[in-house]
Specification:
two-stranded antiparallel ribbon, 36% helix, single chain, alpha/beta
Amino acid sequence: MTDQIVLGEWLYDEKEVPELALQDQWRPEQLAYQLGKAGEAFSLPREFFRSGVHTHCRGKTGSGKSSRVLLPLLMQLMEPYKIEWTSDDGMTRTITEQDAFLVIDLGGDKSLFHATRKRAEELGRRFRFLSLDSNHSEKFDPFQSIKADGHRIIRLCNLFLEAFSLDHGLAYGGSWYSQRNLLLLLSICERLVARKQSGQDISLREVDRYLADPNNGNIKDAEQIRGIFSFLLRYGQLQPCAADDSINMRESILNRDVVYAYLPSISEATTARQIAGLMLYVTVNAAMSLYEESEGSSFDRPQPHLHVVIDEFHTLAGTAFESLLTGARKYGISMYLANQTTESLVKRDIDLSSVVRDNCGLRLYQTVTGKQDFDELQNFSAEATRILKSTKAKESVRYKGKGAFGTESYSQQVTTLLSKREIQEVSATEGAMFAIVDDGKGQREPIPLITKYHLTRGEFLKYRSQTLPDTSQLYDDSVNPALLSSLPAWQCTHLEPAKSPALTARLERLRSLRNQLEAEFGPG
């Protein structure tokens, strides 16, 4: 068990910030840290990550975002640790704790998947996973947040709005389309709540049938939402299963599970983003519900902390992503975001680069590709003075045709301690990166680090060639969900995979009664 999370080793000695010849500059009396030396490990306390601080890592393809940064972080954060708190009875209690994890991998890194799975199993932790291949995926119910009492139904509507990127912001005409989509999602959620109250099954199939009904006049001009649910219906892993062994994010958080969403967007980009959005916002809603339920209750044990890792996060971040980052900390969620360049964060309706800069307390720069990256790093660097020398030759005294014995003058220029050339060198060095840490201990220079691969070359090649675990024998998908959507409701009800738990229980009671009657009076 360790309370320190290592990010890498110092690439070179840390520079001491020089004093400037300025009269009105405030400086702290002493540094809150020791200057780092080349080769020494640089680490941050685990509590820094558990406090809800978000992390952002940017680096181009092949720079090692997954293998050198995300994977080592995951391996260390998954380790158990000691936690101490004071309960309501005034007693100091200490337990061994573990955190919950959700990894959304839109890049499709098999080595990250298998290494995370192996370590989770070594630690005795439950590993759940979802993928785009129904034969290599566990089940996930996208409507697991809907309760029979309809509690917080508006929040559920907004959940789907954000998951499907249907919020068009405040741009001209955008709010009208957002409200229209919200009203349509409200009618869908009300329909699902009504079915839940009556003990019936709720699924994508029911939503698809509802949207396709021409008698529903309140769902006109709903082609976009109808198309979303129609495509998602083709994924059998998003249908409920009779075994009730679907991935439940509320239970996974409480049980401190490691949940992995392997959703490479290169092959099925649109649906991969939508499924990833569903998993993200369903998980956030589960964490919020757990927090709200704990309010006012006795403090017997701290709430579980949730780490959410999203590779290529910009592909699913919408206009409400800033609200998610600012509010996640309150509900015990730390987010780890990775993408390739700053330019990819700038969208037509939102600039995610400023959102990430303002809400992430740890920023890692593996590659620096544009002026904005240089400016950000140098903005966090302290001021320093550089001596500029100039010489003016006297024309009256000449030697070999040139002026000589000239006058020299010196001047001071205030510039940043971190030079542009230094940034270029670190960015061009394999495995090197800059880290900007906002830990409340005063200003610190961007930290030059060198990272290492967590896996050997052999392990990497082995994991990359492995397929995901086969789950085809775990679930009965003999009836295609797309076929079910085209059948009448009465016929779908009698197909075994479509039976709700309530209907299954009633049929079981009927069978038991029939067996008793036959035993007493004989067959027929």
